[in-house]
Amino acid sequence: MEFLGFEKVNSSFLILENLNSSASFGEMVEIKIKDKKKLGKVVEICRDKIIVQVFGSNENISVNNTVVKFLEKQMEIKLSEEILGRIFDGVGNPIDGLGEIYYETKININNSAINPVSRLYPRNYIQTGISSIDSLITLIRGQKLPIFSCDGLPHNQLAAQIIRQASLGNFCEEKFCIVFAAMGIKYDIAEYFKKSFEESGVLEKVVMFLNLADDPVAERLITPRLALTTAEYLAYEKNINVLVIMTDITSYAEALREISSAREEVPSRKGYPGYLYSELASLFERAGIVKKSGGSVTQIPILTMPNDDITHPIPDLTGYITEGQIVLDRLLYQKNIYPPINILPSLSRLMKDGIGEKYTREDHQDLANQLFSCYVKVQDTRALSSVIGEDELNEIDKNYIFFGKVFEKYYLNQDKFETRNVLDTLELGWKILGLLPKSELDRIKIELLDKYYSVTDFKYFMI
Amino acid sequence: MKSKISLINSNILNVTNGDCFKLFEMVYIGKNKFIGEVIEIDKNCAVIQVFEDTSGLKLDDEVYPTGELMCAELGPGIISNIFDGIQRPLISIEKESGIFISSGVRAKSLDEEKLWTVKILKKIGDSVRPGDIVAEINETELIVNKIMISPDIEGKVIDAKDNGDYKISDTILVLKNNDSNKIFEINLKQRWPIKSQRPFLKKIDAREPLITGQRVIDTLFPIAKGGVAAVPGGFGTGKTMTQHQLAKWSDADIIVYIGCGERGNEMTQVLEDFSKLKDPKSGKMLMQRTVLIANTSNMPVAAREASIYTGMTLAEYYRDMGYHVAVMADSTSRWAEALRELSGRLEEMPAEEGFPAYLASKLASFYERAGYVKNLNGTEGSISVIGAVSPQGGDLSEPVTQNTKRFVRCFWALDKNLAYARHFPAINWSMSYTEYLDDLKNWYEKNIDSDFWNCRSKILSVLNSESELLDIAKLIGVDVLPDDQKLILNIAWVIRLGFVQQNAYHNFDTCVPLEKQLNMMKVILYLHETCKKLLDLGLPVKILSNHEIFEEVINIKYKVDNDDKFFFDKYFKKIDNFYTEMSKK
Asked: B55 vs chain A: nearest CA distance in angstroms?
């Protein structure tokens, strides 16, 4: 059905009145302005009016030059294995100049929830070659583990390193691909990722969906859904292990707020709509492993915390949905430590079931707990020493201060191109714990302590 | 008169001819028969919330009234099943629609075809009253389902079937009411509206604890059977872990685990774990006493709101049979957010942080459905509710936590800093409280030991003095504290590591009987006394604290078997030896 003209338009909505149409909720709409076509979606239906959200900007639209056509279908994406290596814009049009893809199926991008009964609990770890992640915040295949970062910190470099090294690690024998969704990021960052995919030689295994900072805001709500639908198709239909990088979740949430306030909805915290949690969940919950397929969807969303505030609604709600988080810290970065991962608030919820005897080594969990516990002690001791001065500290506290320095410089810190085997990382952990007397190590089972602990000479580490 | 859709806004619909409906009636919408519920009625129009994704609905699609409120179906086959928020069994849905839950998928709540072996307890001529138990079925290896008369029916039995195998819709008894001459056919199931409480005779005071095997809970902050507790904590502090531990080890007969707006993987984990883990009491699989309600965060939000009520109704059904039920609600904050989301779409006036003004009353009516009661049929049963709260930004002053605090009597505050140090369970002992102490004191003194309460307060007072001392130590360092205070820090360290901290992944430390908890306390307190004596002899703490006895006491939790009733004698002797050894110096 086609209609000429409409009643009202604002920056992102068209309002059509007195139509005798049988539009259905969520239906796609094609808007033709002279020769240009745009897509839209029905977001509200009343007796005498229909509100259409337009993907793309509404400039040049006037009441008379526009033809609105109802497409009688939901938003879909055309998929086949050929999309690997291709680049699309935020609404799924190819922008690499290679033309339309040949497709074998079309899938509704607002896919329904995965039945918890069909899921398989993720247990297989992914070696990233980064000590702090592998040993303390282990990434598990099928997990959703976001990077909480701040503006100006190297979250993109870290994500690129994870991709580079994970694809070389235990991923490499199996079918593996990457889906990259950019939401409102700058052109340079998209280019950086593209280059780093190229360098690690995985470009032909990457699907990119790019909604850049100057692209229309409404499209931003579509981009991650396209990416995740693609990922689910590749994982569950084609049995591929898919790693999804989504950046930046903050821009996505901002877009939601913008659209929500344009629709005059009742705001909740900080002006974000009340359904922010459900919206974010509808993205993040699309990670996982299902019983009837050999593939998996692992998500690494990146979000920048506004004003470095982890209690801001976006990181806060994200943390409640995802299975842990990797938190980057400005102070560590200023100390010249890369990756500047603050391990204390960081967490991998699935880690406990994916490490240990069967997967990495028996002492992994205890060692990690001990390192966390000692690092907390380091923070306390530093606070104390800033009050009474380092000289006044007792012997054991001085020990902790030294341990803290070594831990940051040798354990957390690592080169952008350095891959550390998980067992080497564990050995390094024991070496550093050796700086502390055995009696301080209260989180490790005695058998393990006897097996692995040995005193390390202070001179072993140069500070 | 037909009712048709006149407005669609996400999962809220307006429909014409509001006079076709009752408030809170369940309706079917459109040709796919989506399930919805009437939440507001006007003469000409009604507002409906839809429990499924509304994509594809059109203006003028018809809405069909069902004549009954949103109901749960109660009968054998509930236990060890996994349902979504509106009691559709997820296993049948999987068969029907594959790995994704597609909208409009239909599945019967209970298996209609399965034959149950029924033992009928009533014969012709018996008169039965509401709630009476008329038949028994072995629902699982652990649970006997007792078929009860619906709370609104009574009469004389005029026909009764023999013991045998029946489907849930087969009639097993026929009743006749003498006053109204009405005939009732009784089968194995009944329906009950999820938002109304099932009736009982009266509430009884709480007097016995819900034993969880978790030291920090059982000893320091116990909850009574029929009690309500809240577990608030920011993300990563171990709310879900605590809930899982309680679901696994608490001594309730039946566990109803409601995953409300939480992660899909967590539900999968419960399902996988509970099908493998054994109940310590009976040796049967934990799933044999567990019901799961899984409405994950990406399932429709209206069903999330309903999931809490569905779970509660199932719990009440088993309570009426005389069981002790524990309901784990993870998380009530997600449920409150569902209320906020729906309220926002209805354009209601928001109160604090966008939550609707009726948040407090809804929370209150949910928590009030818990309790220890005498049932209509004379049995006693209880529902204990443990609700996780996920405060925004970990800030306990937000509306959901604050309102919850007003209605719960047990508050286990999870602490971010303890979690950072990987101290689990991260229940903070200075922020948590329980109001059940006076109710339970008797039980503990009678059934465990007359000294239990005494030990408990001593342990708690050491921990409290520790937090005060640490505040001072933060400013001036530990070294300048006098020796008796240093000793408190040392003993508190033993209590933290050896007692409060508990390893959920350890074979037997994961669930510890009360006797062992008591004996552990006794050993620690004896060590404290002995050290005090040594200090009086003039020995410095520094020398004492290097002794291996401290390590040994800490490791009691791993070294001593749970059933070893006399281990403390051995440890008392060790401490005595420590005394003699030290006093010689």
From this structure: 5
Sequence-ordered list of residues with C-beta below 8 angstroms from that of B221, at least 6 positions apart, any chain: B410, B411, B412, B427, B432, B433, B434
Q: Are residues B176 and B208 in the same domain?
A: no
How many separate domains does chain B show?
A: 4
- Residues B394, A311: C-beta atoms closer than 8 Å: yes
B-chain residue closest to A352, CA distance: B505
Residue A122 in this model has a pLDDT that exceeds 60: yes
Boundary of a domain, candidates B401, B436, B471: B436
Tens of pLDDT, residue by residue over B301-351, are 888 999 999 999 999 999 999 999 999 998 899 999 999 988 888 888 888
Q: Which residue in B51, B53, B235, B555 has the most chain A C-beta atoms within 10 A of its own C-beta, making it the best mutation to test that interface? A: B235
Q: Which of A100, A33, A38, A43 is nearest to A74 (CA)?
A: A43
pTM metric for this prediction: 0.92
pLDDT tens per residue, range B58-74: 888 899 998 888 899 99
Residues B73-103, buried b or exposed e (16+ Cβ, 10 A)? bbbbbbbbbbbbbbbbbbebbbeebbbbbbb
Q: What is the pLDDT of residues B146-199, one digit of tens each?
A: 999 998 888 999 999 999 999 999 999 999 988 888 999 999 999 999 999 999
Which among A24, A44, A116 has the least Cβ separation from residue B296?
Answer: A116
- CA A400 to chain CA centroid, Å, is 34
* Chain-chain contact of B296 with A285 (C-beta, under 8 angstroms): yes
Over chain A, what is the mean pLDDT? Answer: 89
* Contact between chains at A115 and B94 (C-beta distance less than 8 A): yes
Nearest-neighbour CA in chain B from A377: distance (Å): 8
Helix (H), strand (E) counts: chain A: 13, 21
In terms of domains, do B474 and B532 share one? yes
Q: Which domain holds residue B63?
A: 3-71
- Measured CA angle at B259 (ends B258, B264), to 5 deg: 150
Q: Which of A113, A369, A394 sits opposite B296 (nearest CB)?
A: A113
Query: What CATH number does the domain containing B462 carry?
Result: 1.10.1140.10
Q: How far apart are CA B358 and CA B337, in angstroms?
A: 13
Q: Which residue in A24, A345, A397 is closest to B420 by CB distance?
A: A345
Are A116 and B82 within 8 A, CB to CB? yes
Quote the ipTM score: 0.88
We report the CATH number of the domain holding residue B14 as 2.40.30.20
Interchain CB distance below 8 Å, A316 and B235:
yes
- Report pLDDT digits (tens) over A384-409: 898 888 888 888 999 999 999 999 99
Give pLDDT, residue A173.
63
Residue B444 placed within a domain: no
A267, closest residue in chain B (CA to CA): B354
Structure confidence at residue B117 as a pLDDT band (50, 70, 90): very high
CB contact under 8 A, A316 and B393: yes
Length of chain A: 463
What six digits make up the tokens of A247? 């950046």
Answer yes or no: is B465 within a domain.
yes
Whether residue B58 and residue A114 make contact (CB cut-off 8 A), yes or no, is no
